[in-house]
Amino acid sequence: MTTEGAAPERTLSGTIWSEVDRALSGITASAERAVLDVIVTIPRDEVIRGLKALKADEALAFDYLRCLTCVDNEADGMDVVYHLYSTEKRHNVTVKVHLEANDLFVDTATTVWRAANWYEREAAEMFGVRFRGHPDPRTLLMPEDMTDTFPLRKDHPLAEIEVLQGEGIAWGVEE
Amino acid sequence: MNTLFGLPVALDALIRVLIIVSVMTVVVMGLIYVERKVLARFQQRLGPTRTGPMGLLQSVADALKLVAKEDVRPTNADPWVFELAPFLVFVPTFLGFVVVPFALAWSVRDLDLGLFYILAVSSVNIVGWVMAGWASDNRYAMLGALRAVAQSISYELPLVMAMIAVAMVADSLNISEIVRGQAMVPNIVWQPLPFLMFFICMLAEMNRPPFDIPVGESEVVGGPYVEYSGIRWSMFFLAEYASMFIMALLGAAVFLGGSAWPFGEQLGLPWQILLTVAKAGLIIFVVIWTRASFPRLRIDQLMSFSWKLLLPVSFAQIMVNGLILVYDLPYGMSHTLLAVCSAAGVLFVASAINRSVTSPRPRPLLIPRSEAAR
Amino acid sequence: MTNALQPSEFEVQDIMINMGPQHPATHGVFRMVLQVDGEIVKDLIPHIGYMHRGAEKLSETMDFRQGIGFMDRTEYLAQFNAELGYVMAVEKLMDIEVPERAQWIRMILCELNRLSSHFMFTGAFGTDAGVFGTSFTYAFRWREEILDLFEEITGDRLMYAYFRPGGLAWEVTDNFEARVRQVLELSKQGIKDIDGLVTNNEIFKARTQGVGVLTKEQAIDWGTTGPVLRASGVQMDIRRDEPYLFYDQVEFDIPIGQNGDVYDRWCLRMEEMRQSVRIVEQCLTKLQPGPIQPERMPRMLRTPPGEVYIRTEAPRGEFGIYMVSKGGNRPHRLKVRSSCFANLQSLRDMSIGQYVADAVLALGSMDIVLCEVDR
Asked: What interface predicted TM-score (ipTM) does this complex get?
């Protein structure tokens, strides 16, 4: 909480990256250091192989999926973010997969951790990312037939929804 | 046939029935008020306070509300069965009042097979439960009704067996005679085990906690009642409390000496009524107490408790009673033997219950923060 | 056509029972469809989303001070813990140092919040198990005392919005320490009461032991957190493993269950309540007068670009805030990693093959808050 090192020039030395790099041999991964964790970026085609390697590696043993979500970077596509943890070794790593805006799919992580099931369903309905091979590709939080709108995307309107709800509601359109 | 004021039998019966139904309905409403108040005290609450002095009119207000409510019947419900079901619960329950002795000479009709009769009619109402559950066309109701049948059948048997055991000792099936026979010592002294079984089975028969599985709020949301509203629902409700009252009176009469012990004969009618009310009140209080403090059992635990423990023990009790009574021993000796055997049975049941739940299992570990920190 | 009975006419059909969204045992608007064979659960399909209010989307439109209040509405039983995650994320991104006094007060409030939340659990779970309201009123009596204290400090009983990036909104009341001690004494009494009423009850034991078992491997694989995970024997407590606030300066025990069943979860929570009391007592001895906000706080909260995943140990388990900032005064993306969301996934594994009544208990033992699940 108190000191996290000098903020701008965080180096990767002394972090878990060296171990991760070793475990991910044969996979083109790059790393950067965020405020708390190391972020490892893996290409889309290799991500499941990479995650399996991270889980299987004895020194790393990332057996626990903390969180799986997406970040919409608008024109720059989307990131799928995996937060991993090892219940045995007690260390963290963040894995990122970059997706191009016109090509939103990635292989499902349910084959690695079953916990990914609901997270992926949520990410799929909220961002429109397809998780290939997902065992249960229904909507989770949204209505069952709402498969064409992706509310958490940045281009999804927030204020204009009021206008859609009825003719008498005028306070959504001020200008 | 001695009838009131020498009236014809039919008219006499009508008057008695009217008295019982109207008076008992009021008594049952009072019972609901008492339960709410007592339960509230167990739960650190006040209970009803707003309607009338100390909330005394709460039951009246509730009754008025229920009567005024719309009587809803689901579209898919079987109309006849759905509408008839409350009567099949209500009527048999109130039939039980016929033989219950309120004082030594006070019962509607003094039947020679009174004990048999009361057990028989009190088990008829299960038909109404099944009808309600089936006709509602609701899966919670169906599940609740099936649970009710299973439970009722399982607990009917030990209840009857317990009653047979005590009837052997009392040497009669006439409730009034059983009460008179206890003028010196109440039956609970000779037969504590049948009393324990009677109490447990009574709870199960009335679907009271911890045996409220058919109506369990958190599982089947009221069971067979779930689709009922208004007057029909209140009939179920009245029947439930009426049967609690009957069972309490029966327990007081058969085991606790009813209006005879102590000095019932000598001190006259007011004392007898006071005795009955106090003893029945005690049983009702314990029933409410149980409700306030026990969680609900699961259906398989309930069944195995009845079939694997209560029923064999009740058979054993009957056999032991028979063995002791057949040898025509002097009164003091035979009854002391009975009391000892029965008390041993109570200890056995208690230890069996205790053994079945206290299985050795690892306790949670407590790991100090600093110890495991790296 | 022959009149011979076809074998198919004897086929036993399972029935589907729909529990919820309005059902006394689903703690809000959770819905599960049970496929039952008599009383045995063959399959269970959970449905969530009835309480979805788009909290994550809305947070993107609110600046960092407005977002705090929204966290209360996300986790309405452990509000301080939820606020803490949010303000810590902002502090990490902006690199703000929080004064000591503010940290200690945060810790006291979070632990008291854990107490009140677990009191709520004991009450609600007792009702699930069929104690007619007694455990509920017992628990609420003591929870009420804690809420009164919170009200004195923050002015609100449920939606506190008291933590700020950098510290606290305002100084606590003058009699804060005395009041906390008083509340602790009452809570100890409350824990004893509930223990006496429920924990050693024979029927309660019979109902909960060996029910809803989750093995260690299953618990990790499903990503369960908090007491559910620890009951399965996994030693994971973020307060210990990645200490935030001053959890590395106080001494407390972490209860670890060995059976992974519902009864262990209950015992764990009871033990956690005792440990919370212990932590708060230690915090009180270390509380010193001082500032509650950094001296140089920017008037406008603007974070540099970056991202952070903050995890805190809320009463129900890991409460994560994943905040991505692209600069500016509001988050670009805010993901709330809800603890119940993760726990609820494992419900199916816990319930299959058990009785209907056990499925209800398994659900109750997770202590779900639907607002947090659906966000």
From this structure: 0.84
